[in-house]
Design a protein that fits this description.
This is Atlastin-2 isoform X1. By secondary structure, the chain is α+β, with helices and mostly antiparallel strands. The chain is 45% helix and 16% strand. The strands form six sheets. Strands 1, 2, 3, 4, 5, 6, 7, 8 and 9 form a nine-stranded mixed sheet that branches. The chain has a four-stranded antiparallel sheet with strand order 19-20-21-22, with helices on one face. A hairpin with a 2-residue loop joins strand 17 and strand 18.
């Protein structure tokens, strides 16, 4: 027994990103809740290890895991794995000096467990395969099985998770391969049984039985040779053997691509009993060290590395993250999952991995054409690129080999389309932010609202609806405040949420106006002309807004109340709708008749047979030049009074040619009050005849 050796250290995995940056160390990826007997995946730390470094995320991965009963020396062994990986360039001296302390995964002597959950070494090792390809090597340590606080479910979950996620699982047992070891292994790998039936693929890759403290070297020698002999005997099936035993052995063989066994000697009495032992080679028996020199290179040398595969396809660091997420969901319920759920989780994981790769392809392509460092791209071209890269992304997803079949993958394909759609919306927003006009859309919209409200205020003032005119004036003030506030937010960076609300209001108004003026929807066959029509519409919308913003305000002053010059009143008389100049109007050689306008404003009328020297006048009512009578006062045509108080308030009164008096007194200097028609004095309808 050797994890009566575990080096002192508090290692429950409560680490954060800062701890990882400070140096390589074990990190708890899967944490256990001893009260609830549940498991939690630390996704942030997992992604920090596997995908934060661009050099690693797309590298194929080799995962070496050690699992088995607690207090059997698993972490102690893994520290020698770390020593080999750190010193693989020195194959003769990688074990270190005799007095060198063993560090790495936490271990200590004693009978109580040390490791909980599942731990990864925070530093993946880049190793080169014989063909020149670089792979990432990950070391995994697991919570020991069958301690006093773990249930069978806990033990099965940890072992199954580590086996599903590793390319080489080291089954750490002591002294011998016993029947209970095989039965536990059958329980832990039961999830692979149905997967074989569903996919015709073995669910796990390599299993190494590592028999520690082997005490019978006279029956089988240490190392692989003796191990193969012992493993062959233990997994042998015989005709008279009980069916249950045969099932166990057949199940184990069917769950792994490769089975092997290695026999290790005891490390020495001092290792097992000394409380001061810290992993120094001087205290370890030579036989144990010699077998370490054989075992570890057989797993970690370049020619012996086993790349993690699922469904026959190699897994990258990015894909391993997705498999972690998918598998942990299975074990977060109250009961062990149904056997088939592992297959479904595996299918889900590699579909998610394919989805992530396809989405990453789309994002990379779009970043090149409309990322943060690129200039504004025409919306039609952006749409075309989106469709092109979307098709490429979906094509990549569909051509990637995945478990579960086409029906199962359809849901993920739809999810990919949805994610691409969401990403495209963000790219459109990013691209629009580079458009100068779009950047100024909010103030332009509010300015247009001010102009419309200004014109509406004048109209309602003319027709005499004061309440609506006041409402329009209020809208003008609000719009002006909105423009000032928006400018403050843009330049100061304060009140960002309020600024976003103003942008949203402006966008709603813009979209509403644009939608009402939008030309008819284009059919599928109109794609060629559709872009031109859309472009023309956008130019039209921009022109209308520009016209409202510039031309109308500049001409609005002509609509204001202006000074009306007095009318020129000619000398003469107005009578019964006719104008008469001063003096005689009509006469005849055969007699005299006529109408004479006196300069004083009286009309004289006569009609007699002969012309006397002096006609006898008849006095009629005096006429009056055109003008307005209102409230007992006469107003000649033109301005009566007007003025400006210097603060934007105008007032005035004038008489129109159609006998109306208009007065105003308001903020915007526009006529707002129309008075009723004036009273025109009555005229006589008949005159007494002249007499000689």
């Amino acid at each position: 027994m050797v994890e009566n050796i575990d080096r002192n250290g508090d290692m429950n995995g409560d680490l954060n990103d800062f701890d990882i940056v400070m140096g390589a160390q074990p990190v708890q990826i899967v944490a256990t809740d001893e009260e609830e007997h549940s498991f939690t995946l630390n996704e942030d730390l997992l992604e920090e290890i596997l995908v934060s470094d661009e050099r690693l995320r797309d590298k194929k991965v080799v995962v070496i895991s050690v699992a088995g009963a607690f207090r059997k020396g698993k972490s102690f062994l893994l520290d020698f794995f770390l020593r080999y990986l750190d010193r693989k360039d020195n194959p003769d001296r990688w074990l270190g000096e005799d007095n060198e302390v063993l560090t790495g995964f936490s271990w200590r002597g004693g009978s109580e467990r040390e490791t909980t959950g599942i731990l990864l070494w925070s530093k993946p090792y880049l190793c080169t395969l014989p063909d020149g390809e670089e792979v990432a090597v990950i070391l995994m340590d697991t919570q020991g099985s069958f301690d006093s606080t773990s249930t069978v479910k806990d033990c099965a979950t940890v072992f199954a998770l580590s086996t599903m996620l590793s390319s080489v699982q080291i089954y750490n047992i002591t002294q011998n391969i016993q029947e209970d070891d095989l039965q536990h292994l059958q329980l832990f790998t039961e999830y692979g049984k149905l997967a074989i039936e569903e996919s015709h693929e073995t669910p796990f890759q390599s299993l190494l039985f590592l028999v520690r403290d082997w005490s019978f070297p006279y029956e089988a020698s240490y190392g692989y040779n003796g191990g193969e002999a012992i493993l062959g005997r233990r997994l042998e099936t015989k005709p008279k053997q009980h069916n249950e035993l045969i099932q166990v052995r057949n199940h184990i063989r069917s769950c792994f691509d490769k089975l092997a066994c290695f026999l290790m000697p005891h490390p020495g009495l001092k290792v097992a009993t000394s409380p001061t032992f810290e992993g120094q080679l001087a205290d370890i028996d030579e036989g144990f060290k010699q077998n370490l020199r054989e075992l570890i290179p057989s797993l970690l040398s370049s020619e012996n590395l086993v790349v993690k595969k699922i469904n026959g396809l190699p897994v990258t660091c990015r894909g391993l993250v997705e498999y972690f997420k998918a598998y942990i969901k299975i074990y977060q319920g109250d009961e062990l999952p149904e056997p088939k759920s592992m297959l479904l989780a595996t299918a889900e994981a590699n579909n998610l991995a394919a989805l992530a790769s396809a989405k990453d392809l789309y994002s990379q392509k779009m970043e090149k054409v409309c990322g943060g460092d690129t200039p504004f791209l025409a919306p039609q071209e952006l749409e075309r690129r989106h469709e092109k890269y979307k098709s490429a992304s979906l094509g990549m997803f569909h051509t990637t080999r995945k478990m579960g079949g086409a029906e199962f993958s359809r849901e993920f394909a739809e999810k990919l389309e949805e994610d691409i759609g969401d990403a495209f919306i963000n790219f459109v927003k990013l691209n629009d932010s580079k458009n100068i006009f779009n950047a100024a859309r909010t103030p332009a919209v509010f300015f247009a609202i001010m102009v419309v409200a200004y014109l509406s205020s004048g109209f309602f003032g003319i027709v005499g609806i004061q309440s609506f005119a006041m409402l329009c004036n209020f809208i003008i003030v609000l719009s002006l405040m909105a423009i000032v506030t928006w400018a403050y937010v843009r330049f100061s960076g304060d009140l960002r949420e309020f600024g976003q609300q103003l942008d949203q209001i402006a966008e709603i108004v813009w979209d509403e106006v644009k939608g009402r003026a939008q030309p008819r929807p284009l059919s599928q066959g109109d794609d060629g002309n559709g872009a031109k029509l859309t472009k023309a519409y956008e130019m039209y919308s921009f022109g209308v807004l520009l016209f409202i913003s510039i031309v109308i305000p500049s001409s609005a002053t002509s609509l204001r109340a202006t000074i009306v010059p007095p009318t020129t009143i000619p000398a003469g008389c107005y009578y019964q709708g006719d104008f008469y100049p001063p003096g005689e109007v009509k006469s005849d050689p055969n007699g005299c008749y006529g109408v004479v306008c006196d300069p004083s404003g009286y009309v004289y009328y006569w009609d007699n047979f002969y012309c006397g020297s002096t006609p006898l006048p008849t006095t009629v009512a005096p006429t009056t030049p055109p003008g307005c009578y209102y409230n007992g006062q006469f107003y000649p045509p033109g301005e009566i009074e007007s003025g400006n108080d210097g603060q934007g308030w105008c007032y005035g009164t004038y008489c129109t040619d159609d006998y109306h008096v208009i007065s105003w007194d308001n903020f915007s200097c526009t006529p707002t009050t129309t008075l009723p028609p004036t009273t025109i004095p009555p005229y006589p309808t008949s005159f007494p005849p002249f007499s000689k």
